[in-house]
Amino acid sequence: MYRALFSIAFQQHLQYRVAAVAGAVTNIAFGFFRIFLLAAFYGASSAGQPMTLAQVYSYIWFGQVLFGVLPLTGMMGPETEEIRSGDIAYRLTRPVSLWGLTYARALAQKTAALASRSLVQVGVLFVLLPVLGLQRFGMALPVLDQLPLLVASLALSVLLSAALHSVVILSSFWTISPRGSASLAYAVISLGSGLLVPLAFFPPALRGLVDILPFRAVYDTPAMLYAGTLTLRQACLGLGHQVVWLAATVALGAWLARRGTARLEVAGG
User: How many domains does the chain have?
Assistant: First the structure.
């Protein structure tokens, strides 16, 4: 049943091809802005840096390619409106778990973004940039000896992103509008995942905090694996961190779904 729900939502999201291309172009543009900013930072400083400039380029482009997969977009969808309006009552009459339904839809959205928007950006980075003579600003190929770990980390990142996305949606049971929680989640995840500034540049005290939180598991861990900056031990610890937070987030989401429906009141005919 949940596989069928996932398949339906996946096909729905794949229909928005123009939006996927437009989103890919926007992500490429912002990727260049971030690259030029950090290149200027590297050029103005003679101090030792935790990453080479080429690794920074790969780290940034990896985030832009995964932007549609991260738990940052699509949180103001029909699910939140159903909770706000009370139409969620129709969902609750069906023999399906609310958490399972929400998670299947969120996972379909993330997977569809990976199969459309992300692929367009990969084509631009590896095909178009060399043609334009901009390959020095491009994205390097991943480190081959860590490729299995990268694939596992990317899969865990997609699963955790969908779980965090679903948790934000279910918070609508306790808020008048989901806009506030969605905006807060966008700000916290953007900073805590390393999307705005690579976590390697954070001061030690703040880095110790973000290393514990779940947000680096959706982006920083697979991005560092792609850039080849992690040792085997660090990579294994990063995968363990992703697994732990995935299990915790899924458990939290299931609990929120039960508590939310238990306190739900719907007026009307």
Answer: 1
Tell me, yes or no, whether 269 lies in a domain.
no
Residue 29 lies in a domain: yes
pTM, to two decimals: 0.89
* Domain ranges, residue 158: 2-263
What's the angle, vertex CA 203, arms to CA 226 and CA 43, rounded to 5?
65
Cβ contacts of residue 137 below 8 Å, gap of 6+?
32, 35, 57, 129
214: in domain: yes
Burial class (CB in 10 A: 0-12, 13-18, 19+), 74: middle
Q: Kindly state the tokens that stand for 106.
A: 């969120």
Residue 268 lies in a domain: no
Report DSSP state, residue 135: G
Q: How many CB atoms lie within 10 A of CB 80?
A: 22
Instruction: Give me the tens of pLDDT residue by residue for the chain, a chain 269 residues long.
Output: 888 988 888 888 888 788 888 888 888 888 889 888 888 888 887 777 878 888 888 899 998 998 888 887 767 667 777 777 777 777 777 788 889 988 999 999 899 988 888 888 888 888 888 888 877 888 888 878 889 999 999 999 999 999 999 998 888 888 867 778 888 888 899 899 988 888 988 988 888 899 999 999 999 999 999 988 888 899 999 999 999 999 999 999 999 988 888 877 776 54
Asked whether the beta carbons of 153 and 242 are under 8 A apart, the reply is yes
Backbone angles phi and psi of 155, in degrees to 5: -65, -45
